């Protein structure tokens, strides 16, 4: 049994298909078409998922995966800078340190034991990421409530989205993992992260993404980056076509030191970004050239299709106009015959004209729109409808008209209405034995 033929593509779908092939480099048109159909012909979503598939980066168009995020952290050339806590100074400092050492050791040991036991009893709720954007936004709100509005611009999106934006824009991405329970977190946020020089440096040089490790999204990122202590910062960039961690900063770092270390990391990896930019520019130029060739072909194809379409439209329009003229002539002929038949019927149904010496007779002179005059006698007791029917039966009378008195000027109610189903008689209408009435043409109205 033969396989069913695929439906033909529209012009817009054909253009999207060629554009998708240019952007992704796929040679198989069938594969390009299947991918676009899976994304309902949304070319942005299709291209993004194709790039994610090539690079191993989670898609921003699909729910975040449960597996750890795929960022290259195995590069042995990663720059690592760890700030150790300052050692106690003097006799008093060492005495305080030695006295508190057993208490700190006991506290952290019991805390680790408690967490380990709790993990066996109840799975860590941070293991399931259900609302990554909500986790990031919630952290930003809690950060602003505690440390104020003066802080670097946080990326308000998921970690995957931040990676994709940094990759697309060829920018550095600085990731900050916030440890709520760590003793150095509060001082780092107040004395380093929220200082004016750090804010200016981060806002102008890179994207900045942050989240608390108490949130599922932050915990998932910490599992991927494998930090050792807090505060933790990781510099990520596109390197060898992969989003790679190129620098790690851990511990309580001072503002000037932080800026110096980040500048060093950026300078050391600037050549990779320049290489990526050049390579991307070459790809773009190749795509532009191919796109121009495709556009020229499509323009020629569209021109031929447009000529054929206009020819069909002109033929169809000519046929419709001829049909319209024919139908209009038929309709006019039917209307004319119907009107003549109605005039004859009205004429046959008119009562006879009363004699001139009848005391109940009324002589009426009608002035028609074409300036002709018609004279006829009626009876006082007859309805105004008789006058209307008489005028309607005349060939000179327009199809639609109304009868108007001269002085005082008023329109005679000759036809029945909802308010007056029975028109008045000539006497009730106030007509005298001799009247001059005017026929007003209403055909245009």
Automatic annotation (TrEMBL):
Pfam families per record: FAF1, UBA_8, UBX
Biased composition (Basic and acidic residues): 303-348
A GO CC annotation given for this chain: lipid droplet
SUPFAM superfamilies to which the protein is assigned, alphabetical: Thioredoxin-like (SSF52833), Ubiquitin-like (SSF54236)
Region (Disordered) location: 303-361
GO molecular function terms noted in the UniProt entry: ubiquitin binding
PROSITE patterns: UBX
Protein name as catalogued: FAS-associated factor 2
Key words, A-Z: Coiled coil, Cytoplasm, Endoplasmic reticulum, Lipid droplet
GO biological process assignments: ERAD pathway
Domain of life per record: Eukaryota
Places the protein is found: Cytoplasm; Endoplasmic reticulum; Lipid droplet
Claim: Coiled coil is one of the keywords in the record: yes
Domain UBX: 357-439
Organism field: Maylandia zebra (zebra mbuna)
């Amino acid at each position: 049994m033969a396989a069913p033929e695929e439906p033909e593509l529209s012009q817009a779908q054909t253009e999207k298909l060629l554009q998708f092939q240019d952007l992704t480099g796929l040679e198989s048109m069938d594969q390009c078409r299947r991918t676009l159909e899976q994304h309902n012909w949304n070319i942005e979503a299709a291209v993004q998922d194709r790039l994610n598939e090539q690079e191993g980066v989670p898609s921003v168009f699909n729910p975040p995966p449960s597996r750890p995020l795929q960022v290259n952290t195995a590069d042995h050339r990663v720059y690592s800078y760890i700030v150790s806590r300052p050692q106690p100074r003097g006799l008093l400092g060492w005495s305080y340190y030695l006295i508190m050492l057993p208490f700190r050791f006991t506290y952290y040991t019991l805390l680790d034991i408690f967490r380990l036991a709790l993990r066996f009893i109840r799975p860590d709720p941070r293991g399931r990421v259900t609302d990554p954007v909500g986790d990031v936004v919630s952290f930003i709100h809690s950060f602003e409530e505690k440390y104020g509005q003066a802080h670097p611009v946080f990326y308000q999106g998921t970690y995957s989205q931040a990676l994709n934006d940094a990759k697309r824009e060829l920018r550095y991405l600085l990731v900050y993992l916030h440890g709520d329970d760590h003793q150095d977190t509060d001082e780092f946020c107040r004395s380093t992260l929220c200082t004016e020089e750090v804010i200016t440096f981060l806002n102008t040089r890179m994207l900045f993404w942050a989240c608390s490790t108490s949130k599922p999204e932050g915990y998932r990122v910490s599992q991927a980056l494998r930090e050792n202590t807090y505060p933790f910062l990781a510099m990520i960039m596109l390197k060898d076509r992969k989003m790679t961690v190129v620098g790690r900063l851990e511990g309580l770092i001072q503002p000037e030191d932080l800026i110096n270390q980040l500048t060093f990391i950026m300078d050391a990896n600037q050549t990779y970004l320049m290489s990526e930019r050049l390579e991307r520019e070459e790809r773009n130029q190749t795509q532009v050239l191919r796109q121009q060739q495709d556009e020229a072909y499509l323009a020629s194809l569209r021109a031929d299709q447009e000529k054929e379409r206009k020819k069909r439209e002109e033929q169809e329009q000519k046929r419709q106009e001829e049909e319209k003229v024919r139908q209009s002539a038929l309709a006019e002929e039917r209307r004319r015959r119907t009107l003549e038949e109605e005039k004859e019927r009205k004429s046959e149904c008119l009562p006879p004209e009363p004699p001139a010496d009848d005391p109940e007779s009324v002589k009426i002179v009608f002035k028609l729109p074409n300036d002709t005059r018609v004279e006829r006698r009626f009876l006082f007791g007859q309805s105004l409808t008789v006058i209307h029917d008489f005028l309607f039966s005349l060939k000179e009378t327009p199809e639609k008209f109304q009868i108007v008195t001269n002085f005082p000027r008023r329109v005679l109610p000759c036809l029945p209405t909802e308010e007056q189903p029975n028109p008045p008689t000539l006497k009730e209408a106030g007509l005298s034995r001799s009247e001059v009435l005017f026929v007003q043409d209403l055909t245009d109205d």
